[in-house]
Amino acid sequence: MNQVLQKIKSLSQQNLSETIEIRRHLHAHPELSFEEYNTSNYIASKLKEYNIPFKQGIVKTGIVALIEGKNPSKKIIALRADMDALPINETNDCEYISKNSGIMHACGHDVHTASVLGTAKILNELKNEFEGSIKLIFQPGEEKLPGGASLMIKEGVLENPKPTTMFGQHVFPSMEVGKVGFRNGMYMASTDELYMTVKGKGGHAAMPNDYNNPLLIASKILLELNKAFMEMPPAYSTLEADNKPKPPTVLAFGKIIGNGATNVIPDEVKIEGTFRTMDEDWRAEAHSKMKRIAEEIALQMNGVCEFRVEKGYPFLVNDDSTTNSARNAAIDYLGKENVEELPLRMTAEDFAFFSQQVPSCFYRLGTGSKSKGITSGVHTSTFDIDEAALEIGAGLMAWIAINELK
User: For 86-132, how does the pLDDT look when each residue is reduced to its tens digit (9 = 90+)?
Assistant: First the structure.
């Protein structure tokens, strides 16, 4: 296997300029969730160039490809890359800056796709070196509910052939290039969108006896929800009377609209927020408790609260055996000093849908460089990567895949 590892490293290095070119093309031509038509066609053109068979048009823009080694049905694994960008106006000063105004690859999906295409090229050149098959999933709509992963699963992406394990990687700007990170078990939170409409009675601000201010009702609701869920030991909810610790939980509201004026009290207020946790039973219980608290407070203040939960992605769990295998492969590839343990994250990822169906490992690829000033976080207008990470992104995933098939 050492010879195969060296071949992978050599090919990853040889292909780096092409992988960078792919990433820069994708970065300059971002498309929003479920609108990745040009992106899909570009990926298809590269797969044709590599002579890798594929099927296009899954959930409109998704692609599934298959690389068959010797004895192709012996074992099937899957590798996933997401393709969509965010509605952010890029402010970087680089030759590959987004050409699509107001749209930017600010979460690194261009890196994910370029890396998996780089991995695909390596694996296809080495398909006589392994037994089994490798399924490549290029997924639309990670950034938008209900999540492209869930829709691809419904359209049968995990069937014919069915993978026994699955891997995904994600950029990590706070980790220096050259390093990767893993975590066994629970890793990322579920996520739900919360929508409240708080209704009172509007009127002239100078005549308080004639109105029931929904802003005050909304304020009371927000304070009580924060007290019930967040004013407790760090990262834990203790809503129960027995003070029993609950799983890591975040409840936060980021948008409130009350279309009144300095002297106009509106009839209603709209509020939007997010709820994140790591336990499905508690998740369902919390939905009911939030709704009850909000409705009861509104009623006490002679108002009404319409509380709606739009259920999003489940929690992401890394299978122990699959993650241990990937971590050991990373140690072989990069050295133990460059493989880190990751903390829990309350961010969410729709790869979680895959992790709920197939034993999976979702790991982090270091893309930052303090010496080069590449430190901006994801979802910011100045996000970028040290492109040396693409050599590791492509090569390490190829080694993880072959190591899993051995």
Answer: 999 999 999 999 999 999 999 999 999 999 999 999 999 999 999 99
| Catalytic residue (choose from 82, 84, 176, 349) | 84
| Long-range pairs, 331-335, Cβ under 8 A, ≥24 | 332/5, 332/399, 332/403, 333/5, 333/8, 333/9, 333/392, 333/395, 333/396, 333/399, 334/178, 334/179, 334/180, 334/392, 334/396
Detail the DSSP E strand segments found in 73-124: 76-82
237/354 same-domain check: no
Say if CB 28 and CB 98 are below 8 A apart. yes
Task: Please indicate whether residue 84 is annotated as part of the active site.
Answer: yes
pLDDT of residue 206: 98
List pLDDT tens digits, range 133-191: 999 999 999 999 999 999 999 999 999 999 999 999 999 999 999 999 999 999 999 99
* Residue 64: strand, helix, or coil: strand
Cα–Cα distance, 209 to 314 (Å, whole number): 46
pLDDT in tens, 291-316: 999 999 999 999 999 999 999 999 99
320-334 and 389-405 are packed helices; what angle lies between their axes, rounded to 10 degrees? 130
Q: Considering 82, 142, 143, 319, which one is annotated as catalytic?
A: 142
What is the total count of domains within the chain?
2
What torsion do the CA atoms of 330, 356, 347, 252 make, to the nearest 10 degrees? -170
Q: What average pLDDT score do residues 78-87 get?
A: 98
Last residue of a domain, one of 266, 291, 311: 311
Last residue of a domain, one of 311, 342, 373: 311
- Distance (Å) of CA 57 to CA 29, 155, 328, 351: 19, 11, 35, 19
